[in-house]
Design brief:
The structure is a single chain. The protein is built from 4 helices and 14 strands. With 231 residues, the chain is of the alpha+beta class. Strand 11 and strand 12 form a beta hairpin. The two termini are 29 Å apart.
Amino acid sequence: MQTTVLLFLRGTTSHLPISHTLFYTLTRFQKGKLNYSLFTQTRTREKMEINKQKAFNPIVQDIKKGVLRKFTYGDIPFNYGAIPQTWEDTEGHDVVMNGTPLHGDNDPLDVVEIGATPLEMGHVYRTKILGCLALVDEGELDWKLIGVNENDPLFNTLRDIQDLKQSNPELLAKIIDWFKMYKTTDGKGENQFALNGEVMDAKYAKHVIENTHNSWKDLIKNGREGIWTKI
């Protein structure tokens, strides 16, 4: 049975999807905190996603050829969500790899939350963004923001990705390995990374977030076939 979770703002008189109506930060990067909605809990295998086609963009378990999808590489080793009011434009090309412009994957920005506590699917959390990783998935640019939940003990000790590199390089290596290898157990090749595989810092991540927020504003203004954006 497919799981479906609808996300709405509390206190509203009409249905307003969080993916389009909750601003990605309440303070415009004050103290580096961003809102994000969680769709995959750490140490689980169900492949959950925000469905862009359905009304109100619910969280659903992905289906391929009529079968509910799971990660066969093993349990996902982090909480996984997305930043509202962002969109990786399929016609954008801010990053070039091997001389080829990379286009966005047509999704909101993904967030890898590294705290030890499994967070609840469908809830909205605030996270400090430490950096970002430019995953290239089947030729599409699929940014992965790396952050830590404001209620996690690591929140006050990590300021930037460099702090994580120094304090817990094994965790960062695990994240990179996951995204590089997770499709190989389904018979596919390894994923690649742009920018020489470097994990970029928080300043660079802020640039990515602002660019994808501007792309989202264009999406809301002009629409795109196959994406539900009514607000």
